Amino acid sequence: MARSEPGRMDEASLREGALAHMLRYGGTGASLTRALDKRIHRWAEAMGAAEGADRETLATQAESWRAVARQVVESLTKLGAVNDAAFAESRARRLRRTGGSRRAVLAHLGAKGVGSETAATAVPENETAELAAALIFARRRRVGPYSTEGGRALEPMRVMAAFGRAGFGSAVTRRVLACDRDEAEDVIRRAASGEPLADPFG
Question: What angle do CA 90, 16, 32 make, to 5 degrees?
Fold first, then answer.
């Protein structure tokens, strides 16, 4: 099988690749840097497969292109095409709406390369929001106020364990299990509208 020719490698191609990645996937400066590093790695492998390739020279070239890639990311960040804060806020809202605990959302953002301060700003401590997320989680799992009649009831300890694995604390879990369905829906509605509860865990 014939080897494929190595792709073009210059600042323009790195910028084009970066913009294409952001349009398709979005993400953070860190995730874009990883994507460009992979692109450079593939280029270096293809170049290295060529007959008579000088490995030491190639490694030096690849390192130089990685430095250029970081300049591209920095430039796109200044232009606003890469915005970690906007990404974090958007992703946090989506995850909270699907029942993600604050702890789980912070872990997800960290894995995506969002800095701890930016992540904490995107997911501030908010008892009402945490309770609403836990209730959405309960609705997805059909436990607590969303247990189905005739369905197999989970033992309380198993329910507590499931909430714990999802990142919810014992106080919010107990509050969820004490809710009836109408109250649960009211909490979710009020959290979505930004209306606080007097004592979410009371």
Answer: 40
In 3D space, the residue among 21, 23, 17, 19 whose CA is nearest the CA of residue 40 turns out to be 17
CA dist., res. 154 & res. 119, Å (int): 34
Tokens matching residue 123: 């997911």
DSSP string, 84-153: HHHHHHHHHHHHHHTT--HHHHHHHHHHTT--HHHHHHHS---HHHHHHHHHHHHHHHT-GGGPPTTSPP
Query: Where along the chain do its domains lie?
Result: 11-79, 84-192
3 state SS of 180: coil
pLDDT digit string, tens, across residues 119-166: 999 999 999 999 999 999 999 999 989 987 544 456 778 889 999 999
CA torsion through residues 142, 144, 147, 153, sign: positive
pLDDT at 192: 87
Nearest in space to 179 (alpha carbons), one of 138, 145, 131: 145
Rg of the chain taking only CA atoms, in angstroms: 24
pLDDT per residue as tens digits for the range 22-52 = 999 989 999 999 999 999 999 998 888 775 6
pTM: 0.82
Q: At residue 54, does pLDDT exceed 90?
A: no
Residue range 100-113, pLDDT digits in tens: 999 999 999 999 99
Match 């501030």 to its residue by tokens: 124
